Amino acid sequence: MASGESHCNLVDQGTIEAWRARAERYSGRLARMSWEEIRTRAGQETAKRWDRLRCALGVDLTGPVTGGVAATPGRFFFSSTDVVEIIEALRQRFPEQAHRIVEQAGRIAEHRFDVLGFDSLDYGPDVDWQLDAVHAKRAPRRPWYKIRFLDFEQVGDHKIVWELNRQQWLPTLAKAYWLTGREQLITELLALWYHWQKENSYPIGVNWASSLEVAFRSLSWLWVRHLLAECRAVPQRFWADLTRALALNGRHIERYLSTYFAPNTHLLGEGVALFFIGMLCPQLPAASRWLERGWDIVLREAGRQVQADGMHFEQSLYYHVYALDLCLHARILAAQNEMKIPAPFDRTIEQMLEALRDLSQAGVLPRLGDDDGGRLFDPRRNRGEHMTDPLATGAALYGRPDFKAAACCLREETLWLLGTRGAARFDEIVPQRRPGASVRLQASGIHVMTDTRRQLFIDAGPLGAFSGGHGHADALSVQLAVDGRMWLIDPGTYCYVPADGGRNAFRRTAAHNTLEVDGVGQARPTGPFSWDRLPAVRTEAWVTGDALDLFTGSHDGYRPITHRRTVAGLKSRFWAVRDVAEGHGSHGIDCYWHLAPEFQRHEPVPGGAILSGGPIRLAILTTGPTGWRQQVEMGEWSPVYGKKEPVFVLHGGVRTTLPAEIFTLIIPLASEVDEAGTIDKLADGAWCYRAGDRSHYFFWAGRGGPVHVDGWATDASFAYCCCRDDGPPEVVLHGGSYLARHGVTLSHARA
């Protein structure tokens, strides 16, 4: 009996401790909230339950759908009479895209949907709108606020469910109707829309659990409304039913804005949807309020979320494009309706476009942070090569020759947003490509070494906004783009809430081209969209010149150990990377280089490997502390959300006493006969790379003063010298006054 009582007391005490810890967490969080946040959150929690009760009692939450201040709807991107003209331009200018639209519509009519990275998911005769068809999991039919949508066991991958329910495939059916004249497509569109209404009665189901998803669905419906305004196959009652559904959506979005839940692209997208519904459905009683509030959110959030360098604060290039799309669509609709566009808003959009332009000088954009997998206009354009799409619209909208040069060609999206006149404006612009320039996006910490059609990207920014929800633990990681193709890559995202731990596998430090200490990442994941122990990243030097670019940065993600990385970019040659782990004691050091999937072969060479695929060849040579071992392993990358593919990873590692340094050369090889060359370490902070008739010397002066090694001497924090048999040496210095060899000072350029 006594033993049983003791056991019971232990359980009770453990429960009490758990409650106390939970209370402390919540009380600490509550203490950090403003009164306005507490009021808003409490109001939303009360409203959820009140809505549920009223619906159970049979109350119609929508209310009257007339009573707005205006009878004439606002103008959409195009009028009903423009549709035929745009469809004809689509046939003429984008014949392959027109064919794809018709093909995709055929699959949709068979209930086979393309969702994120998954093609032709079969949802059967009666679409189950709660189903994750990839993992065969179904979200429960409960009030939306009781569904834990991040719980994979309960819901599956909510992202797959939500992407289907954005209903961006409805405009595809509408466009396919105009391309083919097949009224069966309209019949299927209406059947699917009404079936969704029946199976997603408010407020039941996971498809009401995110106001952003309701916003996306609303935008899809508005596109259908304007695409089919003159379609005689659509019964009149549909327009009334659609308006009532939009009224319910608008009410939900406004009532449950993500002001404090997700004040990022969620809130921005919700603002855009409120603005669109308010502008285009003026007969709704709340329309004028939604229009004003939505526009205010768009302007405020664009100013708050976009940093001074034009990058979105999530530290994700995909989310940057997401936010840019939202701003562009809202701005164009506002102008269509003769609203005054604030100059700061236009400038913000142009800065976002300029960031894309600067990051795509090699013909392709790098990946940074999460790849969400969705798009605002065409969800199938969700791969890395599609991320420059907004530049085409930006070129026509702002008359920018540099944007047209970066975009290369018109996009279908631009045609629909700006009409055939916008397409004509795009055609009239003479593209002007800016001279290749290395750039620093200071607020986001992105540094880009540019050399003609080659760009090396260095991520020296924060992990991300707030707790880094869409950032990766990739401080000081590098990526390489050459002639329109990525060579050294970021792994992508793969998924948000899988059963196999893939979320963390793709955002961890070891999945990026950087240094890892003791097998531990730079930050600790505390959930699928949060991190703890975020590293502080500093840029210590950034110098650009005609012959050489130089970057030095550090972070404290392994505190008390500091990782410091220097990258020297020798124009038209190669990049030298020096990693130093500063600290004490014995530690494991690992360095990773993730290759693009185009690299299908590898061959070992002294100090590294040559990787090749078709016409491209890349040598990566590394020297490290005694005992350094490296090999080519198989890793994974995700080209689009939900897909993963094998890639080569050059992985080197050692256990050694700190401080320790690793020196790596990244060398594009021009032809099959080019040799990789060899690296010799002369001393700490000094290396020689020999290839053909040239010897390249690298020196970093330590804190102990000038370097003296093997007849060389320099006081420079960085010095480079190229010696060749048939000419004078080339010398570049940074942070010093001389480089001497055997007592003779060499003339030099200054970096």
Overview of this structure, please?
- 36% of the residues lie in helices and 25% in strands.
- It has 751 residues and is α+β, with helices and mostly antiparallel strands.
- Strands 13-14-15-16-23-20-19-18 form an eight-stranded antiparallel sheet, with no helix packed on it.
- Strand 13 and strand 14 (548-558) form a beta hairpin.
- The protein is elongated, with a radius of gyration of 29 Å.
- The N and C termini lie far apart (81 Å).
- Mean pLDDT is 92; it is low at 1-11.
How would you sum up this structure in a few lines?
The protein is α+β, with helices and mostly antiparallel strands and 751 residues long. An eight-stranded antiparallel sheet has the order 13-14-15-16-23-20-19-18, with no helix packed on it. Strands 24-25-26-29-30-33 form a six-stranded mixed sheet, with no helix packed on it. It has a five-stranded antiparallel sheet with strand order 5-6-7-8-9, with helices on one face.
Low-confidence stretches: 1-11
Helix run count? 18
Strand content: 25-35%
Main sheet summary: 8 strands, antiparallel
Number of strands: 33
Structural class, judged by helices and strands? Answer: alpha+beta
**Principal-axes shape call:** elongated
The Cα radius of gyration reads: 29 Å
Distance between the termini: 81 Å
Major sheet: order of its strands?
Answer: 13-14-15-16-23-20-19-18
Percent of residues in helical segments? 25-40%
Mean pLDDT: 92
Please render the helix and strand layout as text.
Blueprint: H1 2-32, H2 35-56, H3 82-93, H4 95-109, E1 112-115, E2 118-122, E3 131-132, E4 137-138, H5 152-155, H6 158-165, H7 169-180, H8 183-199, H9 211-227, H10 236-255, H11 265-280, H12 287-305, H13 317-336, H14 343-359, H15 389-398, H16 401-407, H17 412-428, E5 439-441, E6 446-451, E7 454-459, E8 478-482, E9 485-488, H18 502-507, E10 515-517, E11 524-527, E12 530-532, E13 537-543, E14 548-558, E15 561-570, E16 574-582, E17 586-594, E18 601-605, E19 608-613, E20 616-623, E21 629-637, E22 645-657, E23 660-669, E24 678-683, E25 686-691, E26 694-699, E27 707-709, E28 712-714, E29 718-724, E30 727-734, E31 739-741, E32 744-745, E33 749-750
Parallel strand pairs: 30-33
Antiparallel strand pairs: 1-2, 3-4, 5-6, 6-7, 7-8, 8-9, 10-17, 11-12, 13-14, 14-15, 15-16, 16-23, 17-22, 18-19, 19-20, 20-23, 21-22, 24-25, 25-26, 26-29, 27-28, 28-31, 29-30, 31-32
